[in-house]
Amino acid sequence: MDSSDDSGSDFEGFAPEVVAAAEKKLLDLLELDPNDLSDVDLSDLDFESSDSEDENDDASTSNTNQNGDQWTDRLRRFTIEDFNGTPGPTTILPSDANEIDFFNLLFPSELLEKIAEETNRYAESEQDKKGQDPKWRATTAQEIRAYIGIQIVMGIIVAPNQDMYFSNDSLFKPSGINERITRDRLDKLNRYFHVSDNSQNPRRGQPGHDKLAHVRTILDVILPKLKSAYNPHKEVSIDEAMIAFTGRLGFKQYVPLKPTKRGIKVWMRADPHNGFVNEFQVYTGKEGRTVEKGLGERVVRDLSRSIWGNYHHIYCDNYFTSIQLFNDLTENKTYACGTIRTNRKGLPPTITKSKLKKQGDVIQMQKGDTVATAWHDKRTVTLLSTNVDPTDTTEVQRKQTDGTIINVPCPRVLKIYTQFTNGVDRADQLRSTYSIYRKASKWWKYLFWFMVDVCICNAFILMKESTNHVIKTKTGRTRERTQLEFRIKLAHQLLGDFWGKRKRESIGERQTQGLFHWPIEIDKKRTCKQCSKQKIRKEPKTGCEQCNVNLCVGCFKPYHQERHPELFN
């Protein structure tokens, strides 16, 4: 694969107007008619263009392509073996297990000990270089666990900057973070937070240098757990995801068609049924000046090897798809479907040189159990598949210029591809909702929080699909668990009984607080707060000024015993 397959990593150095023009050209190239109506969303398909051709993959150099001896337009049915996997969680936790138990299946508590150890090591190293930091004290696994919980809260209640979580303004106090930790302590944890030993990684250019050494400790633990925690459904998706990062980094990528255009690229295998991420690889760029040949094929093989033999159906886009790859997958009892670039080797000229113009026109060629399909809508889209009967057809609805809606014939493979190619997009959507995203100067912190988010989303899916954790309403109906409530409860459990900020515990302080809770006469009658709990309606003119509630004289003590027990200890 030549540089055209390297996803635009060499945009760095071009003038902004050049990059913008190139980006606009790509977006214009893929623009669809807004009047289209369809039960098949084809807006994300990879339409062909001569601009995307790859010289080294030119189809005209293929003997098979020139002669077409092995390809035929006489379509025939072929056997598609039944999927023999068992999708779902591999570990069934008991009914008393909570959110943190599911999270620990993927992000074990041992990692907290390791992070605390490496954070302390890094703090000592920095102080050896720059002098003693009098405000730093060694951290613990409990504090690191609470630190992660605080980051989850910040992902739910987003403020423009961290200082606002510690504001004295009552409008900015709902998170409760300032009750658990001081601003200075949080700053110090942000400053020294570390997850690996830098001294163990050889210098750049030396043998054994690891570009991902900063997070290797975490990667080596969670990747096997992601793979083993959940058996994927028959359909799986392989695609790229982006972690936003705009700082300096040797393997930062530029992908103009992604919502996140600049950052760290991650190859990912996800389940389109729920967005569960089973495997991912961080793309660290080309080695030296050598561009990896067949990068897309290698990625698919790496991310799917662990599920070969079960007749899974893999869905990918034209960056990955090739005839050789699909043949290899078939030999390993795995089917595949994906858009394909018309300059890929081995495609017949009937497909590569097709000039379809009429909406609904289709050309299909078959070689063995491999089918190449070209179908024209507003543009021509080309697919390769080994998992769909080529004789199966369906229809899509299209709105014409006069306002009428017509049914347009469409090969079934288009509908199947559109339905199941969105696994990684679904995982991205889950991860971007309430995601942990704090600005940092170090690129690896963005990657670390990405991994934490993946673990949280996957843990949410595990709990959601657990037969022992079905939520039922008072009427007996089942209710779907939401990611928001999962994250809130997980944050509470991670924080636990951690109080990094000193609580008011002295007797003198409690007595001082108690002086402000005193019955007074209030101008306006309102319902007694304590009586209303017993469904008794009384409207006294007495109450507590500190609590700003109306209370009967006899209700004053029981109300405060419930709400402020510390005043009576």
From TrEMBL:
<protein>
    <recommendedName>
        <fullName>PiggyBac transposable element-derived protein domain-containing protein</fullName>
    </recommendedName>
</protein>
<feature type="domain" description="PiggyBac transposable element-derived protein">
    <location>
        <begin position="100"/>
        <end position="460"/>
    </location>
</feature>
<feature type="region of interest" description="Disordered">
    <location>
        <begin position="36"/>
        <end position="71"/>
    </location>
</feature>
<feature type="compositionally biased region" description="Acidic residues">
    <location>
        <begin position="36"/>
        <end position="58"/>
    </location>
</feature>
<dbReference type="Pfam" id="PF13843">
    <property type="entry name" value="DDE_Tnp_1_7"/>
</dbReference>
<dbReference type="InterPro" id="IPR029526">
    <property type="entry name" value="PGBD"/>
</dbReference>
